[in-house]
Predict the structure.
Amino acid sequence: MSDCCSNGNGSYDLAVVGAGSAGFSAAISAAEDGARVALIGHGVIGGTCVNVGCVPSKAMIRAMDVMHTPRAARRFDGIEAEARITDWAALVRQKQALVDDLRVAKYIDVLPQHNGIAYLEGEASFGEDGGLTVDGDPVSAGKIVLATGSRPYVPDIPGMDEVRHHDSTSILELDQLPSSLIVIGGGYVGVELAQVFARAGTRVTIVTRRGLLPEAEPEIGEALARAFEAEGIAVRTVASYLRATQDEPGITLTVQAEGGEARLRAEELLLATGRVPNTESLALARAGIETNGRGGIKVDDRMRTSRAGVYAAGDVTGRDQFVYMAAYGARLAAKNALNGDSLVYDNSTMPAVVFSDPQVASVGLTETAAKTAGHDVRTSVLPLDAVPRALAARDTRGLIKLVADGRSKRLLGAHILAPEGADSIQTAAMALKAGMTYEELGAMIFPYLTTVEGLKLAAQTFEKDVAALSCCAG
């Protein structure tokens, strides 16, 4: 711990608990404003995203895109291509090397560049008097930001404790490619990792109680399921998980399906059933800090907890579990803690992406959410075969759905399923932020033969039949 940051009596302006994306964002924001900051970390520095989340998963997704490209090339006459995995363990080592390099470059090497931050290694918790401690030693700070992140959730399925199972971390550490894999959970983690292993050659079955991406628009979840099944990924929607057992060949998952009990077998089992906030070691009750039903720390729109002077941000709040939202919320928390609670958390135009293929990207309200909010809802659904870019690429898997208020014509939400959909969603986010109507979006100039042009066409579909328009028609 450096003397650069504490004042003469060893106190800090701000203590930040957690050294992941949210923690670093809060600490750096406060230090840049001249505060003396204690950044408290426990375990591997860098948090979920760089170590076990975004970076390793997206590296493996990109690698498996290479495996899939030769199969996709069959859409074009006169082309034959081939790709094969010669050394799975080498690919896993390369992925880990990238993780290690980015942890150093984006976290460890960043700390010395901020003289106002002292790094304290140890387990933070609230003492009997409600004060903050690290490994039992008191830490004096004017304000506190809690940013301890989350971890994978293990569902309460009979027998799960006795069977070999993986989470999103350990499945990407296997040095041998499994012949078969059951994925429990149809959310974004399950979807992304299922496709990674399927494209590597593993026989994959996704088992879910609510279909793929249940929080997405139903048209998108259903279309993604069809795309997955076309790739050979089995998608099973079941009523419940009854038990898990293990024998020499692998794991058997017994489920309650529509026709009765069914037994699914595979060499490996991946649990992709969500995440839970890391709060157990904090002793929040001692400080009178309230949590919600899922264990996340309750915060208001200023990131304030139920205890004065204590704020929380990132996955530990249980909401908006994206690294960029963790960093955004933590920056607000730090600035509010030091400068008077003037900044309001706003996720109304938060873009979200699932890096499946086709990609899923969304911003704003779904149709159901818009109706619940009281809007007179109008929607436009444009199949991707109406988008010239998709036709030229000979890949029309997907659709674009826009949600608007029928009276004002103002856009309320945009939802994309397309091979390059992620790169188009920020345009929709900016349209929503600007309060544009679908008429205004449809009248804008878009570059031809791009996926993002689909937004223009979807906007025009509210009032026109785009099949009756020529190329680039306004």
Observations:
- Residues 88-108 form the longest helix (21 residues).
